[in-house]
Amino acid sequence: MKNYSYYNLLLLCWLLVFILTPVRGLGMKIVGRITSENGEGLAFATIHQKNTTHGTTSNALGYYSLELLGDSATVVYQYVGYQKVEKTVTGQNPPQNKSVLRLDIQMVPEVVKLEAVVIKPGLEDPAYAIIRMAIANRKKHLLETHDYHCEVYIKGMQRLDQVPEKIFGIPVAVDTGIVYLSESVSQLSFEQPDKIKERVISSKVSGDNRAFSFNQASDILINFYENLIYSEGLSERSFVSPIAANAMLFYDYELLGTTVDNHRTLYKIRVIPRRDHDPAFSGHIYIIEDSWRLHSLNLLLTKEHQIEFVDSLSVRQVLAPVTGDGDEVWMLLTQQFDFLLNAFGFKGHGYFVGVYRDYIVNQGFEKKYFNNEIVRVEPKSNQKDSNYWAITRPVPLTPDEIYDYRLKDSLQLVKESKPYQDSLDRKSNKITPINIFVTGKTIHNNYRKRSWNLPPLTQMLQYNTVEGFVPYFRLSYTQRFDDYKFYRIAPEFRYGFSNERFNARINARYYYNPLKFASVRFSGGRFVEQLNEHSPLEPFDNTVYTLIAEKNYLKIYEKLHFSISHNSELTNGLYFRGLLEWAQRNPLVNTTDYSFKDRPEREFTDNAPENEDLGDTSFEKHQAFLFEAELKWQPGQKYIRRPYRKFVINTRYPGISLLFRAALPDILGSDLNYQRIAGRISHDFKAGLFGAGQFVLEAGGFLNKDSLSFVDFKHFNGNRTIFGHFEVGNFQLLDYYRYSTRKIYYQGHYEHHFNGFVFNKVPFLRKTKIQAVTAFNYLHTEEGKSYWELGIGIEHIIKILRVDYYNSWRSGKHERSGVRFGVGF
To answer: With the C-alpha atoms ordered 653, 703, 571, 509, is the resulting torsion angle positive or negative?
Structure first.
C-alpha cells in the first residue's frame, strides 16, 4: 500500500501524455494497470482487441495502454495462469471530449478443474493422450499459415545488479543499473517453409541517438510447432519442443486440469524433462480441446540445460485466433523472454518482450517479394522523435526506463566530449601483466576514433636456428570513421642476432566499402617468411621447441617484395580477391645450433626440409612476378543490411571457391613460369540434437610447371607440436613439408562437435559442460599416397580449452599418434 500514491501519480503522468499526444488510429485510447488478486502488478500481460490481433502487453509494473480500432470494442486481457477478462468499451465510456479511458483490471487465478482420476500402477497420466493428439496435429498447425505479414514491437532491457571491481586483473569500467535499453518496430513477413523479410522502421537506443537497435523480430521468432528450437548464442545445441514428434523420449507430462476460455476447453499440462540435463523445457503448456493446438505456454531453461551466458531463461507466449483463407488460424500475439545472469562476479537480469499485431494472413506475396536480404534496418529508423514513440509504443515504460532514457540522453553530449572520452581511455588503456605476456595491448583514442596495437612479449622475443634470437616489433595504427570505413598501417621490424640481418616492411589496408566488404591492401619491404605462405607454425611454438626440445620445425626464407591486393563482394554471395606481387626470394641457412640443453640423440635439421617429391628443396636467389585470383561463391547467402554495414548469415548450402595462381616470366626480371589451380568446397551445418559438423574438400594441381621453386609448391598445414590449431583444413600430425607437391592432390577434412550430446549423459561430467569432438583429415598426393588422421577430443574445458588425441596412417600403416592442446570454444 505504501506505493499506492506513487503508482497513481505515475498513471496520472501517463494519462497527461496520452491526452496531449495525438493518437495514431481512429479510436480512443485505454490505459490502466493490470493487477493480481493481491494488488500486485502483472508484468507483460497480454491485451488485445477481440477478434483481431491488434494488441499490446503491460510493462514490468503492470501498466498498459492500447489504442483501439474504432470507438467501440471488446478488449481481452490474458495472463498465463489467470482467468481471461473481457471488457466492452464504447465511445460513451470516457468522459465527454476525452480520448483516453482509464480501465484498471484485477485478474484472479484460473480455475483449473481436475476430474477425479485414479491412476493405477501401470496406467499413464491422461496428459499423454492429449500430447499424442497435439503431436499428431503438430504439422497441420505448423503449415496452416502459409504466409503472413505483421508489425512487431520489441523492447529489450538488461540490468546489472552487481559488478566486480576487477576481472582477470583488469578494472571493470561498467556500473550497476540499466546497461541496455532499446526499442524497435519492424514490419515482418513470412512464407513457408522459411522465407523471412523484416524491415526495421524505427529504432531507439538509450544514450545514443545515432545508434541502431540490434532488436530483431526474426531473431526471436520461435515456433513450438517445430520439432527443434534453436537460438543463436543461447546454446550450441537445439532444444526439443514439448510437442515434437519425438517429444516423449525427452518429456514426462502431468495433466493439472482444465479451464475454459471463450467456450473452449483448455488442458493445462505440466511438462517435465525426463532427465535433468536433457535439451528440454520445464513449465506449463495449454492445449485446446478438439483442435489440439497450443493456446499459451510458460517454459523455462536453466544452466543445467547447458545454456550459455545466462543462468536461466523463461519463455512465455500467448497465441490468438485470426482469420485467413476463410479458416480460423492462431498466431503469436505476445512473446516474452526473461533471463538471469550470474557469472564472473556479474549479477543481473533482463527481458525482451515482443508484441505482434495487425496480421495479414494467407494473402500471398508477389513472386519476387522475398530475396536474400532477410533484415533491413532503414537509415532513418533512429530519427524518430519522442512524439512518435509516445504514439507508437504499445508497452508503457517503467519509471526506471523513463529515467534511463532521460539521464543517458541528457548525458550523451557529455559522454561524447573529449574530456569524458579521454577519462575512459586512461582507465581502459592501463597495461596489465596479461597484456604484456599473452594478449598484447590496444591503446585507444576513442574521441578521434584511433587505436594503436602492440604485440605481447611472446611474439616480440623469438628464436630460430636461422636468425638466432630475434627481437620482433609490430605497431598497428588504425583510424576508423563513422561509416565503418577504416584504414590501418602496420610497420614490422625484426633483427637476427645470429645472422646479423635487419628486416622491415610496412603493411597498409584501406577498408573502403563495408557493404561490399571491399578493401585494398599494400605491402612492401624485406622480411622473413615461412616456406608455407599460410604460416602453420607459430613463432612462439617454434621458439619453445627449438630451445627446449632441440627441434627446429620452422623453415624460412627472406623476401624483398612489393604487393597490392583487392577484395570485394561482386554481388551477393560472390567474392573476388586479386593480387599482384613482385618478389626477390633469398635462401637462408642455419647460423646457430644453440638450445637450452643439448640432446645427443637429436640434431637440428637444415633449413631446406625433406620432401617426397623433390630430393633437394634448397633454391637459389630468384625473382618472381605473381598473379593470383580467387572467386568464392556462397549459394543462397542470406544477409542483414544495416546502415553502412552488411552482416552475412550462415546458409544451408556449401561454399565453393576457385583459385588461380600464376608466375609470369620475364616481367621485372621474373625467373619463374607456372600456373596452379585449386577448387574447394566448405560447409558448416547443424545436425539437430547430434551437434554440428564442418567439412572442407579441396583438389588442385599445376597446369604448367616449367619453372618454380620449392616455395611455390602446394604446401599443407601440418603440425608436429603439441599446440593444436583446430581450424578445419589443418592437419595435426602431418610433417610440415614432407608431402608438399607440384602434382595433383586432394584433401578432405571433417570435424564434428557433439555439443553436449555425449557427456550430457555422464552424471559427473555433464556439470562441467565439456563437449566431445571428433576429427578426420585425409590427404592424397602422388608421392605420399593416402595419408589420414583420426582424432577424438574434449572441448569447452573451462569454456575455452580443447584437448585432442590423434592417430595417423599412411598407405594403411600406422605412422604416429599424439595429443594436441589448444583453444576450443
So the answer is: positive
Last residue of a domain, one of 308, 335, 361: 361
Q: Is the pLDDT of residue 674 over 80?
A: yes
Domain that holds residue 694: 673-825
Are 217 and 78 found together in one domain?
no
pTM of the model: 0.87
Query: Three cell numbers at 54?
Result: 491488434
Whether 509 maps to a domain, the answer reads no
The per-residue b/e assignment along 6-39, b for 16 or more CB within 10 angstroms, e otherwise, is ebeebbeebbebbeebebeeebbbbbbbbbbeee
What pLDDT sits at residue 774? 97
Residue 99 and residue 153 in one domain = no
- Give the pLDDT confidence of 589-625 residue by residue, as tens digits: 999 999 998 888 899 999 999 999 898 999 999 999 9
Q: Are residues 144 and 194 in the same domain?
A: yes
Using an 8 Å Cβ cutoff, are 514 and 646 in contact? Answer: yes
> 100 with 154, same domain?
no
Domain count, the chain: 3
User: What is the average pLDDT across 346-371?
Assistant: 92
Contact 482, 457 (CB under 8 A): no
462 in any annotated domain: no
Pick from 235-239, 352-356, 542-546, 593-597: least confident = 235-239
Q: Is the residue at 519 inside a domain?
A: no
> How many C-beta atoms lie closer than 10 Å to residue 272's C-beta?
15
Q: What is the CA angle 578-579-583, rounded to 5?
A: 170
Q: What is the DSSP string of 324-386?
A: ETTEEEEEEEEEEEEEEEEETTEEEEEEEEEEEEEEEES----TTS--SEEEEE-TTGGG--H
